[in-house]
Design goal:
169 residues; eight-stranded antiparallel beta barrel; globular
């Protein structure tokens, strides 16, 4: 059964940019999310993938990913995703024996930048680059769904405050 074993980190600085080997622009949307499970559609390079992820058990979760026709992917992304479609640039970096990705978000999550690395096992040795800071793998605050909720709250609060300031009495 395919497994995802992943660790996620905040960044210490921008020096990672010098090590980028390639970058790709992605759009992600959630088709379903419940009880730690999710079904995601991703569109990139005129390709689409459908991914099913199970609930996490430590660092491990089941992950099934299938390429689907690009036309189907666009329809799913644009017409069937509940909530916002997220946009990001995924930067690939080889450091030591591992391929790291740094996701730089645009749009709703503008300014959010996170590094991730997939591992062959939970016990795998991991040497951290100097551009990596705090690990946030187990912190709920840094799950994509929670980042979106927090940003939407922030925007709604700003709109509400702006409305109170500008409304005639």
């Amino acid at each position: 059964m395919p497994k995802e074993i992943e660790r996620k980190f905040l960044l210490a600085n921008d020096s990672w940019r010098e090590a980028v080997s390639r970058s790709i622009r992605l759009r992600d949307g959630i088709l379903a999310f419940y009880d730690g499970r999710k079904i995601r559609i991703r569109f990139y390079n005129e390709k689409a993938t459908l991914t099913v992820k199970g609930p996490r058990r430590g660092l491990v979760r089941d992950e099934f990913e299938y390429e689907i026709p690009a036309s189907d992917g666009l329809i799913l992304l644009e017409q069937h995703c509940k909530g916002d479609v997220l946009e990001k640039t995924r930067h690939h970096i080889i450091f030591g024996e591992r391929e790291w990705v740094v996701d730089e978000y645009h749009g709703l999550l503008e300014g959010v930048i996170l590094a991730e690395v997939e591992l062959p096992s939970e016990e795998a040795c991991l040497v951290l680059p100097d551009w990596v800071a705090k690990e946030v793998t187990q912190l709920e605050k840094y799950r994509k769904v929670n980042l979106v909720k927090a940003r939407k709250r922030k925007v709604a609060d700003a709109v509400r405050r702006a409305g109170k300031v500008h409304q005639p009495k």
